[in-house]
């Protein structure tokens, strides 16, 4: 099956020898959100296809936190990554010429947004943010859009007196290190509530169609019947797949087409890359993320 898919992909892209001119290897960064080995497993199909397409050794890197991928892109030691909108903003604000956004994930209804989802254990009795007063709330990573940036802006708007400071409204605000860590911590009762990301489409019992909850269900980490949604953000633009801007033009064209065609050529690989059911990817530009960049600037002040 792998050979058949590889042949189908090969007919839609430039030859490897031409595409790889000017590079000796290709390096894919994988943003945090689940444990490193699961991330590497999910992206192995993309690594293999990339190596076939470019004709050079392709390596996967799964740093412990979002900052590792951001710094790799800024420093030129990574060539490709799927970033969250806030992580793209952080990269852009450090170096506007480091990367260029090329593709965005498309939901099964054709939309290109997702949500930050607040959740708790069903048996905790917590049904909304009103019930979280004095309790422990978990966020993923400071560079996460849905795991911190957007909830840190929108949750204080929910009710007067809510801040992101421990001991103000929430008894304690904790950073867990990533989406999977937040989900596991809530499920295990280590924290009372937390936020993660999901497209908000499909059934709650499945962890929605795509996102961190869906990945956790697929991995057997949680039974969604044990959890309850307690908050939902406004729509957030999906983060972009980015390429190092200084890559040769033919390499960028080959990689963009490879991922853009992945849903049609290997739906299972597209599922792995996109963290669930989607319609694949479509082109995107920097303009989609201007509002997130401005929000990031304001938070930094």
From TrEMBL:
InterPro entries: PhnD, Phosphnate-bd
Name of the protein this chain belongs to: Phosphonate ABC transporter substrate-binding protein
Record's keyword annotation contains rRNA-binding: no
Native species: Cognatishimia coralii
Sorted UniProt keywords: Signal
Membership in a protein family: Belongs to the phosphate/phosphite/phosphonate binding protein family.
Pfam families referenced in this protein's UniProt entry, alphabetically: Phosphonate-bd
Signal peptide: 1-20
Classification via Gene3D superfamilies: Periplasmic binding protein-like II
NCBIfam families according to UniProt: 3A0109s03R (TIGR01098), PhnD (TIGR03431)
Xref: SUPFAM superfamilies: Periplasmic binding protein-like II (SSF53850)
Source taxonomy: Bacteria, Pseudomonadati, Pseudomonadota, Alphaproteobacteria, Rhodobacterales
């Amino acid at each position: 099956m792998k050979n058949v898919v590889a042949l189908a992909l090969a007919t839609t892209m430039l030859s490897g020898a031409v595409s790889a001119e000017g590079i000796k290897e290709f390096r894919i960064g994988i943003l945090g959100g689940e444990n490193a080995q699961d991330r590497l497993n999910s992206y192995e199909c993309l690594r293999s296809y990339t190596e076939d397409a470019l004709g050079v050794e392709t390596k996967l890197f799964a740093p412990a936190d979002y900052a590792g991928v951001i710094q790799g892109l800024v420093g030129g030691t990574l060539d490709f990554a799927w970033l969250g909108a806030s992580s793209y903003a952080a990269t852009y604000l450090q170096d506007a010429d480091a990367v260029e956004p090329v593709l965005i994930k498309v939901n099964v209804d054709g939309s290109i947004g997702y949500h930050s989802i607040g959740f708790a254990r069903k048996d905790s009795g917590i049904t909304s943010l009103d019930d979280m007063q004095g309790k422990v709330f978990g966020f993923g990573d400071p560079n996460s859009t849905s795991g911190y940036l957007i909830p840190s802006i929108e949750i204080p708007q929910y009710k007067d007196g809510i801040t992101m400071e421990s001991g103000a409204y929430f008894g304690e605000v904790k950073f867990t290190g990533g989406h999977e860590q937040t989900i596991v911590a809530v499920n295990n009762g280590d924290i009372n509530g937390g936020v993660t990301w999901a497209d908000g489409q499909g059934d709650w019992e499945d962890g929605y169609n795509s996102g961190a909850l869906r990945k956790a269900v697929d991995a057997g980490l949680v039974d969604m019947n044990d959890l309850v949604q307690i908050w939902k953000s406004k729509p957030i633009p999906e983060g972009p797949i980015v390429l190092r801007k200084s890559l040769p033009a033919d390499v960028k064209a080959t990689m963009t087409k490879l991922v853009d065609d992945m849903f049609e050529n290997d739906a299972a690989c597209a599922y792995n890359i996109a963290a669930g059911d989607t319609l694949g990817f479509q082109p995107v530009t920097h303009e989609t993320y201007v509002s997130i960049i401005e929000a990031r600037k304001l938070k930094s002040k």
